[in-house]
Amino acid sequence: MVELLAVCRVHVLLPDAGTVGVTAIDKRPVEGRVKVRPYGLYADVQADRANHGGLDQAVYAYAQEDADFWSAELGRDVTPGLFGENLRVRGLDVSRAVIGARWRVGSSLLEVTHPRVPCQTFGRRLGEQRWVRRFTQANRTGAYLRVIENGEIGAGDTVDVVHTPVHGVTVADWFAASYGLARQEAGDAVDPAEERGAPDPDVLEKLARRLLDAHTLGEIRLSAGMLRRTTQATTIPVD
After folding, report:
1. What is the 3-class SS of the chain, one letter each residue?
2. What is the rounded distance in angstroms from the CA atom of residue 179 to the CA atom of residue 198?
3. Segment 18-61, tens digit of pLDDT
4. Smallest Cα–Cα separation from 208: which of 180, 186, 177, 166?
5. Which range is least confidently modeled, 115-124, 140-149, 185-194?
6. CB–CB of 142/94 below 8 Å?
7. CB-count burial class (<10 Å; 0-12, 13-18, 19+) for 103
8. How large is the greatest C-alpha to C-alpha distance in the chain, in angstroms?
């Protein structure tokens, strides 16, 4: 059984050294049931709306199993909400969810859109050395979701994967190809000064074609950002 362990939303806006000046990454668990609407959880906010939030990044989910990995790596608890996630789930490999998969959570229906790309705000939040690079290389990104059906959710709800697209491209597949992680695992040289590696163009194109085919056939609906990136990775015209 896949269980929703915690529902998290912004606790307080914190000062931040980035261009916006504040961040809403401080998410903490809330009690009771929370309404889910097209732009996310009721009473949740994003400070940097140019890069966070919106219909295709309405909800961010992270797996307890990945949090446990980081707890061991960092020597401290990764409590629900520490990574800025809205949903902490157990029993589901969130980072390897298929793009376009749909989850029934409480009375809401959510759809996986794309991986979380770590930013410097996240790095400042954790206060760990070269955090963006470490998070990238681990490829345990969690997943953003859009809201297909409004509803209410609460800790203790089950998470049911009600649809998995046949194209098979996972969040982790796309992220790895986007930042050349497979090439790094093969021992290719990596500039230690780089936070993220260069894309693997051959693998990226293959994955992009599968995603664009699924999008064109109506099997999935790519987010605007994913549609742009997949199109750039191929020569396939997109209407």
Report:
1. CCEEEEEEEECCCEECCCCCCEECCCEEECCCCEEEECCEECCCCCCCCCCCCCHHHCEEEEEHHHHHHHHHHHCCCCCCCCCCCCEEEECCCHHHCECCCEEEECCEEEEEEEECCCCHHHHHHHCCCCHHHHHHHHCCCCEEEEEEECEEECCCCEEEEEECCCCCCEHHHHHHHHCCHHHHHCCCCCCCCCCCCCCCHHHHHHHHHHHHHHHHCCCCCCCHHHHHHHHHCCCCCCC
2. 5
3. 888 999 999 999 999 999 999 999 999 987 777 788 999 999 99
4. 177
5. 185-194
6. yes
7. buried
8. 50
Higher pLDDT, 67 or 186: 67
Q: Is 237's pLDDT higher than 80?
A: no
